[in-house]
Amino acid sequence: MKGRLLLSISLVLLLQFASAKFNVEKSSLRVTSPESLKDVYGSAIGNFGVPKYGGTLHGGVIYPKSNQKACKSFDDFDLAFKPKPGGLPVFLLVDRGDCYFTTKAWNAQNAGAAAVLVTDDRVEPLITMDTPEEDAASETYLNNITIPSALITKRLGDSFKKALESGEMVNVYLDWRESLPHPDERVEYEFWTNSNDECGAKCDMQLDFVRDFKGMAQVLEKKGFTQFTPHYITWYCPEAFVLSKQCKSQCINHGRYCAPDPEQDFSTGYDGKDVVIQNLYQLCAFRVANESHKPWVWWDYVTDFAARCPMKDKKYTTDCANEVLKSLGFDMKKMSDCIGDPEADSDNPVLKAEQDEQVGKGDRGDVTILPTLVINNRQYRGKLDKSAVLKAICSGFEETTEPSICLSTDVETNECLDNNGGCWEDKAGKITACKDTFRGRVCECPVVQGVKFVGDGYTECKASGTGRCAINNGGCWNGTKDGKSYSACSNDNSEGCKCPIGFKGDGVNNCEDVDECKEKTACQCRNCQCRNTWGSYECTCGGNLLYMREHDTCISKEAAKVGWGFLWVIFLGLAVAGAGAYAVYKYRLRSYMDSEIRAIMAQYMPLENQGEVANRVQHADI
Ligand SMILES: *[C@@H]1O[C@H](CO)[C@@H](O)[C@H](O)[C@H]1NC(C)=O
Ligand SMILES: *[C@@H]1O[C@H](CO)[C@@H](O)[C@H](O)[C@H]1NC(C)=O
Ligand SMILES: *[C@@H]1O[C@H](CO)[C@@H](O)[C@H](O)[C@H]1NC(C)=O
C-alpha cells in the first residue's frame, strides 16, 4: 500500500511536467497518388521501430480486409503484405485501438509490411505513439521492431480508406529529411537517462544502448563532430510531504530532488533516494570529465558502473561507484565537491540546473519520456538502437559535412536485405549494387577486388577491364565437364561474354555444346565416323586413313608420316610431270594420226609429198 501511495505522488509530479509542453515529433507524408489527395501531410513518428532519419521511404498503402486493428497476427487471417520482387513496399494502414501500438507494428512487420500507418480513431491533434510501460509480451519483441511507424489523423486515414475502396492506388512517401534540423557541421545531442537498472525492458534497452553506442559516441566526440551532454530527470517533493517517510526515502536535499522507488515498493530493495544519488554521481562524472576536456569518459563510467555495480547484486552503492571512478582515474576531490552533501537543506547546483533543463526550450518540448535522445534540440523518436541513432545523428549534420562514419557500413538501413533494395545483384547473390547509407539505400555498381563494374545499378552491372574474369568469371558462363573447362570470358575482350568455339549461346547464362556431327560442320568425309563430345567432337576415318583435324580430311598413314607439306611437293611434282607427259603424248598422237591418215589416203590418191609416207612406222616409239 505504501508503494502505491508513493507511486501516486510521483505520478502527480510527473503530471506537473506532462501538462506543460510536449512537442509531437513529425515526419512528413507526401501523397503522390491518387490525384485528389496529392499533398504533404504531417504524421507523428512512433517512439519505436526505426524511423529513417535523413531519408525517405516510398510505398503503396494497403488496408487489410480483416484484422484491421492489427491486434492479431496476420497469419491467422492468411494475409501477407510482402511485395513481389520489383513491387512497391507496403505501408499497412491500421486502425488505432484495442491493443498497443507496438503490437500493431510487430504484426504488420511480421506480415511483410515496410511501414505501418496507424490512423487515429478520433479527431484530435497528432499524438506520439509510445511503447507500453509494462507489458511482458511486447518486451520480447520491442527491440525487434525495425519498421517505422507513423500516426496519421483520422481524416487522412478515412480519405485513404475511401480511395482504396473505390479501387484507387494510394502511393505515399514518408519523408524524415526535415525531421531534424541540420544547420552546421556539429551535432549537439543530449541523452535523458536514469541510473536505475531494474525497471524491466526500458532499463535494459537503455543500458544496452549505452554499451553499444559508446564506441561510436566516443569517436564522434573526440573528433569534434558532436557535443554530447547527459541529463537526468528528477522531481521535487511537494512542500506538504517533505517530512513524510515517503519523501524522505525518495528524495535528497530535503525533498528537493526525488526519483521514484526502483521496484515501486519502498519496503524492499533500493529507494528512490539511491537512484537520485547515482544519477548525481553520473552527472558529476560528466562535469569533471568535461572540465578536463574528456567528456567521453562519461560513457566509460556509466557502462562500467552498470557492469560492476548492478542492483541485482546489491552493489548499487556509493562505495562501488567510488571504486569505478578511481579505476577510471577520476579526480576524487573534484567529484566530492560536485556531489556535495545529500543531507543538506540547500540546493545542489548540478541537480538544480538539471531541473531547469527539463523544461522545454525553443523547438523542444519538455522531456517526459525516459530515456530520450534530443538531437539538435529535437526529440528523437524510434528505438534506441546503435545504427538507428547514428543515422539520426548523421542526418543532423549539414549535408556534405557528415563524418565518414555516417557513410560507412555501420549505418545499416537494412534496406538492402529486402529484395536487395531493388538493385542489381549477381546470380550468386554475392556481389550487389545495393549500398546502405544513412540517407537510405542507393543502387550503384560496385568495385570488387579492383575490378570496376559498370551499368545502371538497377538492372545491370558488368565487370569491365582487365582482370574482370577473375571475379565471378566476369559474369560470364563457365563450365567444367569430363575434366575439361571452358569459359565465355576472355580478359583481352574487355566487355561482354562470348561462348568459346564448340559452344553456342548468349555467353552469360549458358553456352551449349554444338553437336558438330549432327550439324554437319565437321567430319563429313566419306567413310568417316563422327562422335560428338562436350565442347568438341571426335572423327575417325575409314580404312587405314588418318583424320587431319585442321583440314577436316583423311590422309594415309604413310603420308601422315612424311608430313603434309612434303606430300604437297611430291603431289605438285607428280602433277607437273603428268601434265608434261600428257602434252607430249597429245602432240605425238596427233602426229601419228596425221601420218597414218596420210598413209591411208595416199593409197587412194596421189600425194604431192611422198616423202612423208616413209615416216609412218615411226609411231612405235610412243
Ligand atoms: C528478436 O531477435 C532476436 C535476435 O535477432 C531473436 O533471438 C529473438 O527470437 C527475436 N524475438 C522475437 C520475439 O522474434
Ligand atoms: C563541457 O565543456 C564545454 C567546453 O569545454 C562547454 O561548452 C560545455 O558547456 C560543458 N558542458 C557542461 C554540461 O558543463
Ligand atoms: C567458373 O569461374 C569461377 C570464377 O572464375 C570459378 O571459381 C569456378 O570454379 C568456375 N566454375 C567452373 C565450373 O569451372
Short description:
It is a single-pass type I membrane protein. Helices cover 30% and strands 18% of the residues.
Would you kindly provide a written description of the structure presented here, covering whatever features stand out?
The protein is an alpha+beta fold and 622 residues long. The chain folds into four domains: 2-17 and 181-406, Glutaredoxin, CATH 3.40.30; 26-175, Glucose Oxidase, domain 1; 415-464, no CATH class; 474-513, no CATH class. It has helices at residues 2-18, 101-110, 136-141, 154-165, 201-222, 245-250, 272-291, 297-308, 318-327, 332-339, 349-358, 386-394, 557-562, 564-604; strands at 26-33, 39-45, 56-62, 90-95, 115-119, 149-152, 171-175, 187-193, 226-232, 251-252, 257-258, 372-375, 378-379, 434-437, 440-443, 447-448, 451-454, 462-464, 478-481, 484-487, 503-505, 511-513, 529-533, 536-540, 545-548, 553-556. Strands 1-2-6-5-4-3-7 form a seven-stranded mixed barrel. It is elongated. The structure holds 2-acetamido-2-deoxy-beta-D-glucopyranose (3 copies). Residues 472-473, 478-480, 485 line the site of one 2-acetamido-2-deoxy-beta-D-glucopyranose. One 2-acetamido-2-deoxy-beta-D-glucopyranose binds at residues 140-141, 144.
